[in-house]
């Protein structure tokens, strides 16, 4: 079988389906073979399956606060071909960091300075060295094996791979009727105001090329950051592809999500974004850069 290359970024081939001989596994073959020249760059292939390998390094960002009991389930599903795991610790009072280091010895830990999920994600993104960034919650609701679908969407041409529980093939075990209705209302507003065609809005399992951060200035600290990202990628004219995803129940602990409180915060973000220009976002970004980020270890 001949190789198939699909460039996802200018000047760099990111996706290949290499031929396979006999019973040699793709991982063994890739480990024994030297790095291959791809255009002007040289990268080792990262085997995903017997017929799929990629060259761009993938960073997974996990914001966590007191999630020691859930991390074993989260890390168990993460594929071993990812480049790095960045855990943003929100000043946990349990042994979240210790558990993370035991499960993934090379984990990069960021001690969060501020508060809120948005602040944690922004701090995590700043610490990433991969070309692709994947956002994964620490409560065990996301299946890390789905990361291959997000990465495939990106290397096939998308700038932003947006998880959807309501796209064909997706699903959720963790939404009350009122939350589902609220999500639908907010999603409908965003589609009408910004010309999007989303089927899901308030979902935190997403992936994107790191260079997208230059075009979607992030300047909020709370749960509404997911909506802010979804709105700004559309406003920036980035290519968005929804990826069907299944959301599972939180395994341990209680969610801090409040349907009414957080729903109103999301609505305020949507209404505010309609009148925010890119120039204003750049000014706000310049101010946000002065906010201290956590120490990386």
Describe what you observe in this structure:
- The structure is a single chain.
- The protein is α/β, with parallel strands linked by helices and 297 residues long.
- Helices cover 33% and strands 21% of the residues.
- It has 9 helices and 15 strands.
- Helix 3 links the parallel strand 8 (84-89) and strand 9 (108-111).
- The termini are far apart.
- Mean pLDDT is 82; it is low at 1-13 and 16-42.
Largest sheet: 7 strands, mixed
DSSP summary: helix tally: 9
- What is the β-strand count? 15
Cross-sheet strand order for the largest sheet: 9-8-7-10-13-11-14
Query: What is the percentage of strand-forming residues?
Result: 15-25%
User: Which structural class fits the helix and strand makeup?
Assistant: alpha/beta
Q: What shape does the CA trace take?
A: globular
Q: Could you state the oligomeric state of the chains shown?
A: single chain
Helix content: 25-40%
Radius of gyration computed on alpha carbons: 19 Å
Summarize the helix and strand pattern as letters: EEHEEEEEHEHEHEHEEHEHEEHH
Low-pLDDT parts are: 1-13, 16-42
Average pLDDT, rounded to a whole number, is 82
Distance separating the two termini: 43 Å
Write the layout of secondary structure elements.
Elements lengths: L4 E5 L2 E5 L9 H7 L3 E3 L2 E3 L2 E4 L2 E3 L3 E7 L6 H7 L6 E6 L6 H8 L4 E4 L5 H11 L4 E4 L11 H9 L4 E5 L6 E2 L4 H18 L11 E4 L15 H11 L4 E5 L1 E2 L11 H15 L4 H11 L9
Parallel strand pairs: 7-8, 7-10, 8-9, 11-14, 12-15
Antiparallel strand pairs: 1-2, 2-6, 3-4, 5-6, 10-13, 11-13
